[in-house]
């Protein structure tokens, strides 16, 4: 198939940036979106232009590195799908495709389609863990965990940290990401001891990193390639309120 | 080259205990005087950095991705083995040890494997305490599944995302140490060389991928946790960025490289669809618990809709050839059987390079919802890539390069032949011999990082004393200069061909002659072709742009340059290992029905290669492998 591509180019964080238009012919419908980008880059090389830089690694939908906004939607229109798993059979011959980076104040552009998502790491560093010294753990079966709790924790833990939730939100809020990590740990008996401290620290790290506030639009969950539910945001709000009240009366 | 494996004295079961007791300790108050560099943040690197930081060492950890959470361990699907015997089905440390040695076709080191089996149980405890949401039974206890090469159910799992969950566990432990200031994390940094001073590893040189800055980092020890080299085949299940540069650069500075020809071809991957293909996607081996592998009995049926092929016209070849293990035969055997069926013209799908993995029996027996619960995400992934619904039509699968058992030679302490340079996880060679069993890679990465290196590094550091050299010392500057020259040379290559096109061509040579089946003639041919390709690369490579910002073409060019040298080494090793064992199948050495024939008399050793300068044939050394606790036997899964 033949495609008309509008691709975002930006030299660095301070550059204003611009769209560039390219025509790409002979795209196989069996190729993935990123393989189409590879093809574009080979063509740009032949034309003597610098290829477009974009983040990608595992190309099987789990590392969370790929981060393209395709036709206005993070990871494109296909539900529950990362950019790398999106295949060209979902497009039509002659389509115009707009390709931009994940846009958010807390995700500054590094170059072209690559953004800096280290703000997510700082949220995890603030409290997205259970404090357990290596080698000090009791037997794995010493503490039974009801299957339902464990399954719900797993649903939240499936988050790949890609940032589509932030990029889709008009406030660029990171609540879905933060609530998934906090929810995963807060739902398990192992995570109870540090629960209050965890939610307070993670939420304030999130605010400090420059993410916007959550207004329950729900775009984040719709854009999430792993279908993380809005229920976790509700849970985080509850856990945070409880922790806050306890901290006032403590 | 000194290949003293330093296997401790005493009976097998006591070796690790004895060793821990006789190892020197670093006083808790002195640990902060030591600096340790960890390259890579996957299961091995992440767990090592977190644990060493927790112990009080000053750790600098590096990864090429934008976050340590993205290392390719994250893509492991099926599970992690541990000798917990929670299923009461006859498992034990000794059985896991034996299965691993046998699965590796008797080419791994007994003492290391036994230690791996011993600490496997601690890993599960550690991960559960971190909050890893392993699958559970209704009573709330941990669930298990079976994996290839074992007759007990010892694999722990978190749906089809076990690697992700274990890595996020290690990443959370690492994050805790980063916030405590014990670990400094350096993302988007690629190690391009190692600094060796007076024979000891004292630092590394990195390139910041975002800014292009090359920088020297010094320390008292360097840990390479940089994964395997499967991408030398271009198409593999590895992430696009996985590369051999860190370990290959250490090899060039004096670290022995062991058994590069031991590569694992995974039997259940989605087949190649066309020229555009940039990587291959694995379908977890756990699918073989409920899927049956078959091809049509008659070549003329290969074009038919599989659902229209009568039961009597199907050849369930694994069940037929290996009745006791059936569809759960080990990876190397299953892969070769698939190739055989396709070579006979009975393969299905594009180019006749595929076999069916059929779930219809299990769906009839257990219901679609049970299958969906077990493998839902894998079926979804398959649908995304192929556009086919595997609940209604059998999956098409074909073997692909997946894991590399070879790696830097290490002794029992995980130290390479460069003192102070350690290799952990897939980057080393020691535990899986010539073939790795499913669900054992995660086990080894975490074993090395959480439970082995924290003890063994102490012994080295206590003996060598604290004192990282200055990054400005002449020895460091010299290495730094050579790195800069190399980068400058690449970035000034303004020829005609992209590094990707060279990588692709190298991959084709490797897959054709050093893939699932190898022979002397083919390997010699491959070596010649790789040398020609390298000459062409040096003349005609095109790298656009400059070296002072994010330049993905420059990154790839550097990695491909090392793959070109490394591919030749791999072929050379395959050529010299004149036997078949595990994943290394030499066509000259097989039984009448196509099974591998080992030569224990001449090849019960690890082959360790020593770099001898550019353009010179490297030297091949041997570490003899002795088996005091298992009897070398013909591996049979019949």
Count of DSSP H/I helices of chain B: 16
Report helical residue fraction of chain A: 25-40%
Q: State the oligomer.
A: heterodimer
Overall tally of structural domains of chain B: 3
Number of strands of chain A: 7
Span from first to last CA of chain B? 41 Å
Average of the residue pLDDT scores of chain B: 96
Widest beta sheet: strand line-up of chain A: 2-1-5-3-4
CATH class of the largest domain in chain A: Mainly Alpha
Largest sheet of chain A: 5 strands, mixed
What are its keywords?
heterodimer, A: alpha+beta, Ubiquitin-like (UB roll), Fumarate Reductase Iron-sulfur Protein, Chain B, domain 2, five-stranded mixed β-sheet, two-stranded antiparallel sheet, 12% strand, B: 638 residues, alpha/beta, FAD/NAD(P)-binding domain, Flavocytochrome C3, Chain A, domain 1, Methane Monooxygenase Hydroxylase, Chain G, domain 1, five-stranded antiparallel β-sheet, globular
Question: How would you summarize the topology of this molecule?
Answer:
The complex is a heterodimer of chains A (250) and B (638).
Chain A: E1 3-9, E2 18-24, H1 33-46, E3 68-70, E4 73-74, E5 96-101, E6 109-111, E7 114-115, H2 118-127, H3 147-157, H4 164-168, H5 175-186, H6 195-208, H7 219-223, H8 231-249
Parallel strand pairs in A: 1-5
Antiparallel strand pairs in A: 1-2, 3-4, 3-5, 6-7
Helix pairs in contact in A: 2-5, 2-6, 3-5, 5-6, 5-8, 6-8
Chain B: H1 15-22, E1 35-39, H2 43-55, E2 58-62, E3 80-81, H3 93-103, H4 110-130, E4 155-156, H5 162-179, E5 183-186, E6 189-197, E7 200-208, E8 214-218, E9 221-224, H6 245-252, E10 257-258, E11 263-269, E12 292-296, E13 314-315, H7 317-321, H8 331-343, E14 355-358, H9 360-366, H10 368-386, E15 395-404, E16 407-408, E17 421-423, H11 441-464, H12 474-491, E18 497-498, H13 499-514, H14 520-540, E19 541-542, H15 552-576, H16 600-603, E20 605-610, E21 619-624
Parallel strand pairs in B: 1-2, 1-9, 2-5, 9-17, 18-19
Antiparallel strand pairs in B: 3-4, 6-7, 7-8, 10-16, 10-20, 11-15, 12-13, 12-14, 14-15, 20-21
């Amino acid at each position: 198939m033949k495609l008309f591509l509008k691709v975002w180019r930006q030299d660095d964080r301070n550059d204003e940036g611009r769209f560039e238009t390219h025509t790409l012919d002979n795209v196989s419908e069996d190729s993935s979106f990123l393989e189409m980008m590879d093809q574009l880059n080979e063509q740009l090389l032949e034309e003597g232009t610098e290829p477009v830089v974009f983040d990608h690694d595992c190309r099987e939908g789990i590392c969370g590195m790929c981060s393209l906004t395709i036709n206005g939607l993070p990871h494109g229109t296909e539900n529950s799908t990362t950019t790398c798993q999106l295949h060209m059979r979902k497009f039509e011959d002659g389509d115009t495709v707009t390709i931009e980076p994940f846009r958010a104040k807390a995700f500054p552009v590094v170059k072209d389609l690559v953004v800096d998502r280290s703000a997510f790491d700082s949220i995890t560093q603030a409290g997205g863990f259970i404090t357990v010294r290596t080698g000090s753990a009791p037997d794995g079966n010493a503490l039974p965990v009801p299957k339902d709790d464990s399954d719900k924790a797993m649903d939240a833990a499936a988050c790949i940290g890609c940032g589509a939730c932030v990029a889709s939100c008009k406030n660029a809020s990171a609540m879905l990401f933060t609530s998934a990590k906090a929810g995963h740990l807060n739902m398990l008996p192992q995570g109870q001891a540090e629960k209050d401290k965890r939610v307070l620290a993670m939420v304030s790290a999130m605010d400090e990193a420059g993410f916007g506030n959550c207004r329950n639009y729900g775009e984040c969950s719709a854009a999430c390639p792993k279908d993380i539910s809005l229920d976790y945001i509700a849970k985080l709000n509850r856990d945070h309120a409880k922790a806050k009240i306890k901290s006032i009366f403590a | 080259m000194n290949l003293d494996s330093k296997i401790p004295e005493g009976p097998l079961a006591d070796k690790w205990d004895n060793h821990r007791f006789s190892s020197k300790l670093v006083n808790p108050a002195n640990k902060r005087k030591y600096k340790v560099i960890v390259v890579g943040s996957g299961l091995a690197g992440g767990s090592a950095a977190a644990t060493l930081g927790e112990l009080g060492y000053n750790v600098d950890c590096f990864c090429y991705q934008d976050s340590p959470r993205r290392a390719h361990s994250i893509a492991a699907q099926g599970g992690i083995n541990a000798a917990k015997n929670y299923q009461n089905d006859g498992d034990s440390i000794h059985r896991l040890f034996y299965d691993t040695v046998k699965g590796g076709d008797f080419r791994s080191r007994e003492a290391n494997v036994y230690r791996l089996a011993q600490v496997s149980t601690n890993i599960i405890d550690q991960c559960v305490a971190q909050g890893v949401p392993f699958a559970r039974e209704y009573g709330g206890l941990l669930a298990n599944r079976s994996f290839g090469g074992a007759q007990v159910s010892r694999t722990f799992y978190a749906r089809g995302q076990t690697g992700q969950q274990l890595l996020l566990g290690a990443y959370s432990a690492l994050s805790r140490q980063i916030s405590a200031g014990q670990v400094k994390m350096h993302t988007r940094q690629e190690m391009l060389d190692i600094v060796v001073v007076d024979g000891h590893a004292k630092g590394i040189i990195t390139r910041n991928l975002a800014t292009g800055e090359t920088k020297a980092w010094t320390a008292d020890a360097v840990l390479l946790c940089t994964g395997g080299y499967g991408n030398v085949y271009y198409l593999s299940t590895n992430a696009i960025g996985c590369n051999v540069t860190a370990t290959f650069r250490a090899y060039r500075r004096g670290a022995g490289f062991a058994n590069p020809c031991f590569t694992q071809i995974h039997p259940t991957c989605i087949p190649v669809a066309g020229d555009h293909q940039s990587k291959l996607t694995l379908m977890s081996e756990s699918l073989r618990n409920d899927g049956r592998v078959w091809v049509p009995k008659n070549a003329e049926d290969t074009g038919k809709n599989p659902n229209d092929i009568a039961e009597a016209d199907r050849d369930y070849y694994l069940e037929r050839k290996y009745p006791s293990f059936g569809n759960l035969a080990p990876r190397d055997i299953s892969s070769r059987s698939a190739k055989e069926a396709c070579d006979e013209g009975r393969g299905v799908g594009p180019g006749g390079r595929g076999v069916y993995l059929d779930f219809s029996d299990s769906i009839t027996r257990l219901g679609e919802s049970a299958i969906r619960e077990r493998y839902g995400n894998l079926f979804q992934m398959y649908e995304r890539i192929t556009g086919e619904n595997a609940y209604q039509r059998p999956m098409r699968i074909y073997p692909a390069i997946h894991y590399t058992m070879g790696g830097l030679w290490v002794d029992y302490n995980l130290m390479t032949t460069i003192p102070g340079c350690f290799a952990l996880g897939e980057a080393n060679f020691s535990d899986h011999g010539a073939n790795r069993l499913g669900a054992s890679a995660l086990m080894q990465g975490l074993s090395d990082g959480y439970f082995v290196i924290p003890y063994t590094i102490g012994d080295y550091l206590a003996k060598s004393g604290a004192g990282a050299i200055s990054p400005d010392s002449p020895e460091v500057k010299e290495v730094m200069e050579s790195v800069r020259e190399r980068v400058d040379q690449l970035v000034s290559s303004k020829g005609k061909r992209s590094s990707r096109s060279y990588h692709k061509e190298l991959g084709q040579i490797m897959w054709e002659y050093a893939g699932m089946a190898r022979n002397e003639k083919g390997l010699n041919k491959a070596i010649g072709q790789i040398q020609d390709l390298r000459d062409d690369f040096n003349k005609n490579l095109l790298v656009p742009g400059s070296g002072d910002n994010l330049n993905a073409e420059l990154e790839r060019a550097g990695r491909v340059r090392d793959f070109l040298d490394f591919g030749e080494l791999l072929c050379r090793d395959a050529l010299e290992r004149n036997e078949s064992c595990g994943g290394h199948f030499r066509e000259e050495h097989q039984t009448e029905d196509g099974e591998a024939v080992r030569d224990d008399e001449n090849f019960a050793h690890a082959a360790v290669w020593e770099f001898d300068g550019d353009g010179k044939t490297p030297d091949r050394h041997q570490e003899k492998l002795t088996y005091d606790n298992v009897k070398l036997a013909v591996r049979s899964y019949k």
